[in-house]
Specification:
five-stranded mixed sheet; 5 strands; mainly alpha; membrane; 22 helices; 66% helix; transmembrane helix
Amino acid sequence: MNRSIPSALYVLLGFCLFHIVGVMSYVLRVGRLSSVPIYDDVYYLNDGQTRLELLDRVGIFRCLADFFIFNPPHAPFTALTGLFGLMLSAGADWGPYVLSSGWLLFVVLLGWLALRELEPWKRSGVLVSLLAVPLFGTVLSEFRPDPVWGLMVGFTALLLVSANIVQMKASRLFALGLLVGASIIAKPTAAPAAALMLAAGLAVSLCLRVWVQSPRSPRAAMRAVAVLSLGAACVLLPYLLTGGPAILAQIRDVMAPGSVWRTQTSAWGHISYYLNKGAGTPVLGWVWYASVPLFVLSLTWAALTKDAKALCTMAGLAAATLTAYLIVTLSPVKSPMVGSFLYGAIIASSTWCLAFIVMRSRVRGRIALLIGALVFITCWVPRSAVNRNDSSIASINEATYAVLPQVLDAMRAKPGGSALVTAPGPVYSGTVEFMSRRQGIEWKIIGAPWETWEPFEQSISSMDLIILAEAGMVGQSLGYDFPGVRLQGRLLDTLRARADFKGRPLYTDKNLRSVWMFVRNGAQQ
């Protein structure tokens, strides 16, 4: 068996390489990298650019101090990927996406470790089939923390509930605790949810193991939990001490009553949001159809064979998945990215159930790999949430490429100025910031998330340049209802009436609505 480990791993890595190249090719040709960078990805691209510029100016030590103390990132692993990815690509936006392949391989490694009782060829077969699950492609096609976080938390839960931590060495328990802490802060704004989900799964599986094993050892279990918690605390506490206040502020902002991010639907809409086929299949693919049958078959098989160890693991997985479902259902904010938390748990649970069935069956290792390869060949399709052929994305590209050259010329005429982008799209503030910084232009770019007139009125006097998009333009808001969009007409009339600004439309869409640029008199040579 030891000799087969390298061969099975090489085959698995070969499929991973095909997956990475295939998805990246699609993203470059049709997906996000075929279009101008927009939200939410561009937020993390700009963060990576800021940290790379800081590294260039002050060196490694002060960059690390900024990262850990003065300016903790919104998502630490995504921030590191952005920094090193942009370093790799010399500032081009493709670098962080390519470097995200490292997180894909890390999740596959967690899966390999979680299926440690399965022989190598069977392990490879199970994991190859998982590469056809769309969420594994989203890790590469979307540069944001949610997909990696969902899979990390899911497979960390699988490692926790499938291991008998009472019998683990202290060093391995501590290492597992470090992984738990890292999974929780992969998306810090959702850290309480991840911690609760992992705790629920561990509590159920551990209590059952202590109850069924002989002799019972509750004290040993408590010691194991203590060591595990110590490892997690070594990761969590340093980050929360510096980044905790900012995280809490963002949670309050997103969850606040009246927030634009809240999903307005009925109680049944909240309950069924992540359970309907339209939401589940684009993320889970074949797992959407197989997850329940796999769980029922595994549970029946384990019960009939009185496999107490497997039943404890399945109870822990069920508890973790149910907890994840309750959290995302009760949350007023819903989206496919938020759903990564639940879907990651479902994928991890299905992985273990499939592995259990393969292990208990008489299928030979290479046959299991062949079946996994057939699933991959049948179900693998590259996807991206952004498609350049979509009318909204096409309008965003067209508007940005029409507006940006003249905006950049105006910025070059007055170095160090300030610009206000008054509406979310079709030209976005993050897009202007990222693309102007790539040209070496250091301007302060401000987006306008305001809901009332007063902030718009007050900000005008301090701006050198204003980019305004009339309400109702194609590519605007991308499905969200931003109250500030309704103020664009009033703002346009105000700016046109002011003598200290000169404005003109730079782009007009098919609805005959325009993107305007207003430059303060004297700001442009």
